What we know:
Blueprint: H1 9-13, H2 16-25, E1 28-31, E2 36-39, H3 42-49, E3 55-56, H4 79-90, H5 93-97, H6 100-112, E4 119-121, H7 122-127, H8 129-139, H9 146-157, H10 168-188, H11 196-202, E5 204-205, E6 208-209, H12 212-243, H13 245-253, H14 258-269, E7 275-279, E8 283-285, E9 288-290, E10 295-298, H15 300-303, H16 339-356, E11 361-362, E12 368-369, E13 378-380, E14 382-384
Parallel strand pairs: 2-10
Antiparallel strand pairs: 1-2, 3-7, 4-14, 5-6, 7-10, 8-9, 11-14, 12-13
Helix pairs in contact: 4-11, 6-8, 6-16, 8-9, 8-12, 9-10, 9-12, 10-12, 12-13, 12-14, 12-16, 14-16
Amino acid sequence: MVRFNPYSYEFHDDPFPIYRQLRDDAPAYRDDELGFWALSRYDDVVRALHDPDTFCSRFGITLEAGNPLPMMLTADPPDHTALRRLVSRAFTPRRVADLEPTIRALARNYLDGMLGQSSADLIVDYAAPLPMDVISRLLGVPEADQEELRGWSDALLHRVEGEMDVTPAGVDAAYQLYKYFSAFVAERRTGPRDDFAAALVTAESGGERLTNDQVVGFLFLLIVAGNETTTKLLGNCLLAMQRFPSERAKVIADADRIPDAVEEILRFEGSTQMMARTLTREVELHGRTMPVGDKVLLLLGSGNRDERVWDRPDVYDIDRSWPTHHVAFGHGIHVCLGAALARLEMRVSLEEYLARYPGYEIDERALERVHSGNVRGYSRMPIRL
């Protein structure tokens, strides 16, 4: 029987063979040592995502202890419904679409910084600073604070080999982020400002408004999840295009194919690989009984490679038809509110990068992975331009 440990380096190096074994041999996998179940087949993952009454989020979406801040990701109806309604009034499609000129200008600025160089680091020089800059502009975070916020975000997500607990540095990072955004929100309540954080503070529905902690919780979530996932997804996408040169050629020949490339990398190697839920009732599945109160990992990355659903799932193919959609952004009530922003950032950053450096070469021998319980991607990706 395969051993599945999401906190091991071996798993992070290449989880897809492990996923395949789970789907075939243990679709309702139980790990007694770490105390969780794992669902790996697409249909099981989707059913769980659409059943928040049974697979609840309020005890946290990771195996470790949940975040005490009120967040949509860790809320169930009716609290989740009210939170999402209020946040959606500030995080509008128009506000996201209006960011495109800003994203394009920022992308060109970072690419200009590579001019005259024969090599660079795709993550350090482009994929990491760009999403943080975008999120910061959206929120109204000063440029001088961005690097510190990104450092706290990285520390919060990092895990030590084989251990599921947040590191001491991660605990401190969470405290620093909470303290920073508490002061940030308090400042937004002192006078009118034209940024997303101010819009959250003033958002109203049916006479209800978000509390300070609810606003802080959403800013906390956005700066961590919105930054890290897009950074890793961009690196994963450019690496996949190098490993599947026919797909890179299609995109370079026709930039209108970039949205197809983005959608396929979300399926093929999304940056968010799994989410945890907690059972509110006993569930019988695949001949196993999962008791009330147990944690269940929903393996999004495995569901997106399920051969029961996808033809040639381990091939990166931008011509793929979509009779069924991937679960990279989740499904159901918790479908990612920032999906439109992530897609926009990915499209623009790829358009600008491939127009400038279509012949890039990633040095795969020098790749360095992040080590996190649910985020898949790289911290370093040296390239020849």
